[in-house]
């Protein structure tokens, strides 16, 4: 019989195809042959066939259920069951998760903005989260939620909480905590070795107590959302060079370095480097970590050796410029021969610990001038931009006139490159007897007294006005305490070594030449460059707050210099600069002059 009570089919309809099905335990081979002709189909083969069909149906159902559950579990970018700050982000796209998290943050806005109570050291302070950049990085938090570890099974039935990504400005937080900390923190005492003469002086390292900025940030980030008390400890930090290492440096380098001279040999001869020069050039420098490193500062060494290097070196000479026939003329410089300092410091440092064999070899190399004729000719120094003259009395026989001539010669021919600042004190150095200056009246403590270099202030005023009318930048100047009618009011300057200086900056794109000249009754300074402005003029405001001099009697003698007295007053002067017919600059200069007393050499009349 056939299944469901039908008769056996004709021989032509018998199955000839084998069906492959699921093999059940103890069922034998999974291949089922077609039944023989006339064989009933309700034999054990039929039962096995039924089981095969049933298994196939169940399996298909399971697969369908699993597929459906997988589709549900893997819906969205964020695994199901994922929460951040209590907000359910699971099963959402990143865009929806971002929106949901921001909505949760909006609900918590007041709590998130509340001041944090932070204990730092022994002190407690309140910090506003916004002031130190405390915030939740929403995109980064959503990305972390989407990448949360989720096993397929846990995606179906599990849950997970992802911590938000918290940001903070480390520098602003450190500044806020440092302000609250006050003087509780202390910096490390860095190790140091210096010389007093040729005797090493030592500063022992000491630990510091301070905040660790990164650690502070980690603790504040962690405590912000939990509401737990936040305590930021101070961290003790020790300099990298220990006291033992410092003592070793002194014993093995600092002391033996200055125990004897070092011989510097070259092809042109030798020079002795005395202990005093070694002490001035041997430097022990501590880095931020307190690591002490010895070096030889070759520039300091050259300065300490001074003229001794003239025995082996030929200094280069810069190109110069002078005014000849009413035109600037360039005179070429020459190269020199100087020590190659590239290896000198290293070689010298190597022999300083030794008691014998204290010799180094130096190499002389050609040294071009800093200012060549080609460079000087290309600076645009082509015309006289300004000139100014002041007059004096007494002729060239007076000491004051001689001082004016001496300083004028020293400054004559000076070239100031674009952007550079000229310092009169820096250019001349000390103006004393050794430099050819003489005693002449100077103002000291409000009265005229004999002093070396008197009269140089007149040259300073002349130079100041020449640069003023060239439109150059005034950097430093100071008018006299009293006004002298040989100078323009307000627009004048004194000088005194080393405290009072005159400085100006060449604030143009061209070089400039200072040209000086003098006669028996005047001194003139001219500035040569490329003319930029149409004109530079001075407009004066009225004199005000005028005071009259008082009479002071002084002890007669060589140090007493009488004077007639000068009124005091205040006044403003305006430098008006025009270019292209338009005022491009209007600068105000103001000064208050004291009334110069009338000094009388002799007793007060009874």
From TrEMBL:
Pfam family, one: VanW
Domain YoaR-like putative peptidoglycan binding: 242-360
Keyword Ion transport: no
Residue ranges crossing the lipid bilayer per the database entry: 52-75
Cross-referenced InterPro entries: Glycopeptide_resist_protein, Vancomycin_resist_VanW, YoaR-like_PG-bd
UniProt region (Disordered), positions on chain: 25-45, 317-336
Presence of the UniProt keyword Cell inner membrane in the record: no
Superkingdom field: Bacteria
Keyword annotations: Membrane, Transmembrane, Transmembrane helix
PANTHER family the record matches: EXPORTED PROTEIN, EXPORTED PROTEIN-RELATED
Name of the protein this chain belongs to: Vanomycin resistance protein VanB
Source organism per UniProt: Micromonospora orduensis
